[in-house]
């Protein structure tokens, strides 16, 4: 997969903790990361984060404003989940909005690495995955979504996105099928 990268988005301890810890999500995501590394596909981690005092959060931003008003995330909750920890040298991008591109240097990292295809995973399907897919499509990236590498609080929303919406702009496949093709 020349010129591709696997994006692992918002798989942070505080976000993962909201989901069933007995699910197959993290083991599957570890398989995808392992397959990418073995094939020489860069793994890029994307996390949401803010400075002390949350100067990036506008009072007009309903979603992030609520986080700020609750006191935000503590430092431990912001860390990438220990089950999918980046290796030394793997890129970790901090974003300030829902899309992996918004308020981050992801585009610069991708251009510098001559990446033209993105393989998307993350939490939530209806949040970071949807927003990143839309923006990446507008930026002319080839896109693959690993349906079981994405997780959403609403199973029906996840299904509609992966079966009906995402296929309009991306190839949608499973972790095992993608890894087999590497």
TrEMBL record:
Under the heading Pfam families, the entry gives: Isochorismatase (PF00857)
Q: Name one GO molecular function term.
A: hydrolase activity
Please state the span of the N-terminal signal peptide per the UniProt entry: none
Q: Keywords on this record?
A: Hydrolase
Q: Which domain of life is it from?
A: Bacteria
Keyword Cell membrane carried by entry: no
According to UniProt, the name of this protein is: Cysteine hydrolase
- Residue ranges of every copy of the Isochorismatase-like domain listed in the record: 4-176
